[in-house]
Design a protein that fits this description.
heterodimer; A: 406 residues; alpha+beta; eight-stranded mixed beta sheet; 8 helices; 23% helix; 37% strand; B: 263 residues; mainly alpha; 12 helices; 0% strand; globular
């Protein structure tokens, strides 16, 4: 069952010589626009009950516009959105709060904006205050609030009534870690009760943690629609390359998608995972030695060559990663046709589970200035617990627990 | 029907907005609500004192004590309703910007809030003025019962004008400034402080081209002269206002998506 359907949604912005020309155009079509900008082109997708969709993309890709159209705040130029009656949204930080009013008054107003009546709101306003945990400040004018406090109020009010669909634009990353956890928990419980969620974020970890599916927008089109890890990998590759053309997705033997991108002035000819004896291996015991071995060849001269890697868990969250820029081992003045052997020695201090390795060849600490090659899912390994006492989590610690009678 | 359903859904928002707007206008003062009515009342007081006592002016056709004050009250009551609605509906979209970008509440709800707030304030002002006139011992019969009808027509007229200006204002922000500058001028070319009869007879015809004159004189008839107003021009104006409102609706439908984009 889907709670929201967007069908062939497009949004065109037109610029006219002056706004009077725009009016003339609307009224009789006398003057033509001097510039037309397609913010969204033919976007279609569905959101199921209890499904969480993450929207990612570069600045100006059309994420916020799409969210506003889905929320019914903006009208599409063509196409249609079918949405349920009960929706809630944080579209701009602050929900249109009036900072002269108190937190409580703004909550009343924001809830009324969602179509709720006096009694319904009065019944729940104290619960909202408790959720914000801002205490006395709730009854003080909002202009005395910090950004984080405003965010707490906004989040608490839009999630106070079980909506059928919730829209959130970039608000999740505002505020402290404590409230972030609390709000994630609330979102998960809304989801469990069937609330569809669409949110925009630049925080890929938030996207991976919450989303069931991710849409990647580029220049107003959905260019990827799939599982979070795969789409986020593609996005990472995309922001490191010029356009979507240079990115290639290949289905690996194991069914996992491997995304690779880059300009290929330098590339990996081999990436493998080996055990402490130098033998190729796939399964490691907790704490066992692990070597990530790679071979690189250069197609042209490169002033500064940095090798980077990261190890990610099943959900695509980075467990550990670094590069030779940070370790002060960048290769300088590398010549064309030169090749290098790299061995990265690690210990498999990870929790039980499957991990994938991502490798990259770049010129400095990020892949945004030059991206020679970037491979997601370059190698896989799994960790089992053979020797250690049972533990949970993604990282292994050697705990020393002291218990004394007193 | 869809509009009624919308109103029903957002009725509490509308009520809350009206209250918050009234309070917000004068929020910082301790007796804030009082100030809302001080301006028009002081106007009546000042003109009454200066013109009646200092200049010994008499109101032609109504030779009773305080007749001039009653005349002023009628004109100012009508004018403040017109002035308030035009000023605020003109800015309704721009002021509602933050909310428009955060919720799917239709713009019509904001319009309704603005108009309702002005009506509420005007009714209270009317009651205060009636109270004053009773205290002064002025009783002009039951002609004031015509006021609700007059008010209805004046609201339709003012809203139609304000909304049209408001739509233009989104595209061309100078409209609002121009109207703000023009309104005081309008006040003085409308017979509010002075009776139409003191104007040279040759230009009196020009004054009747000003539509607000018909409303002010109807109010003045009801309040100061105890007569029923001339209904023909008012009916014409009412029909014209309703047509203009319909035209506004059409314009609004055409430009709706631009409105949100431009705000």
């Amino acid at each position: 069952m889907s709670v929201l359907t967007a069908a062939h949604v497009s949004k065109v912005y037109q610029r006219f010589q002056t706004e009077l020309h725009r009016m003339a155009h609307r009224l009789g079509g006398v003057s033509a626009p001097v510039e037309t900008f397609h913010a969204l082109s033919d976007v279609s997708f569905r959101v199921g009950a209890g499904e969480c969709i993450g929207l990612i993309g570069r600045n100006g890709a059309g994420k916020s516009t799409l969210l506003k159209i889905c929320a019914g705040v903006m009208a599409p130029s063509s196409g249609a959105v079918e949405r349920p009656e009960r929706t809630a949204a944080i579209l701009e930080l602050g929900l249109g709060f009036d900072f002269d009013l108190t937190g409580r008054e703004n909550v009343m107003r924001a809830a009324a904006m969602m179509g709720l009546q006096h009694q319904q709101i009065a019944d729940r306003v104290d619960a909202i205050r408790d959720f914000t945990e801002i205490g006395e400040a709730f009854d003080r004018p909002m202009r005395t609030y910090s950004t984080g406090m405003k965010m707490r109020v906004a989040f608490s009010v839009v999630t106070a009534w079980q909506p059928d669909v919730l829209f959130i634009d970039e608000a999740l990353s505002v505020g402290d870690a404590y409230f972030q956890h609390k709000s994630f928990d609330r979102l998960l419980s809304l989801k469990a009760q069937g609330c569809g969620l669409i949110f925009v974020s630049h925080d890929l970890n938030a996207i991976k943690t919450l989303s069931d599916r991710v849409l990647l927008l580029d220049q107003g089109r959905i260019i990827q629609d799939g599982p979070p890890e795969q789409v986020c990998d593609f996005y990472n590759a995309l922001i490191g390359s010029e356009g979507a053309d240079a990115v290639e997705v290949r289905q690996g033997d194991d069914g996992r998608a491997r995304t690779q991108s880059g300009t290929l002035e330098a590339q990996f000819t081999e990436v493998s995972i080996r055990n402490g004896d130098g033998q190729p291996a796939q399964t490691f015991a907790v704490g066992e030695r692990l070597v990530l071995q790679a071979r690189i060849e250069l197609a042209s001269d490169i002033d500064s060559l940095v090798v980077g890697f990261s190890i990610r868990d099943r959900l695509g969250r980075v467990v550990f990663g670094t590069n030779t820029w940070h370790t002060d081992q960048a290769i300088v003045n590398a010549k064309a046709l030169q090749s290098y052997e790299i061995a990265i020695h690690l210990a498999a201090n990870f929790g039980v589970g499957d991990y994938s390795v991502q490798v990259a060849l770049v010129d400095r600490d990020t892949h945004l200035t030059a991206n020679y090659q970037w491979i997601d899912g370059a190698a896989l390994f799994s960790v089992t617990n053979l020797r250690q006492p049972y533990f949970e989590g993604v990282s292994w610690q050697e705990p020393r627990i002291e218990i004394r009678e007193s | 029907m869809a509009f009624l359903a919308t109103l029903l859904r957002y009725r509490y928002f509308a009520l809350l907005s009206i209250l918050q707007e009234i309070r917000g206008d004068y929020q910082r003062g301790r007796i804030g609500f009082f100030w809302v009515f001080m301006n028009p009342l002081l106007q009546v007081l000042i003109y009454s004192v200066i013109l009646t006592n200092v200049l010994q002016a008499r109101l032609p056709g109504a030779d009773y004590p305080y007749s001039y004050s009653m005349y002023l009250m009628g004109g100012i009551l009508a004018w403040s309703l017109f002035d308030g609605i035009v000023r605020e509906t003109m800015d309704v979209f721009i002021r509602g910007r933050a909310i428009i970008h955060n919720s799917s509440i239709p713009l019509s709800v904001f319009l309704l809030v603005t108009v309702a707030k002005n009506i509420a304030l005007n009714v209270i002002l009317l009651l205060i003025m009636l109270g004053f006139s009773l205290a002064l011992g002025v009783w002009q019969g039951l002609s004031f019962l015509a006021l609700p009808l007059l008010m209805g027509a004046l609201v339709a007229f003012s809203t139609a004008i304000g909304l049209l200006l408001g739509l233009f204002n989104v595209f061309y922000r100078d409209v609002s400034s121009a109207v703000r500058a023009g309104l005081p001028l309008m006040f003085w070319v409308t017979p509010i402080v002075y009776p139409l009869s003191i104007v040279d007879e040759r230009v009196q015809g020009l004054f009747s081209l000003n539509p607000i004159t018909h409303f002010t004189s109807a109010y003045q008839a009801a309040l100061a002269f105890g007569t029923l107003p001339d209904s023909r021009p008012l009916l014409i104006l009412l029909i014209a206002s309703l047509l203009l409102l319909a035209l506004n609706l059409l314009l609004y439908r055409r430009m709706r998506s631009d409105l949100v984009d431009l705000l």
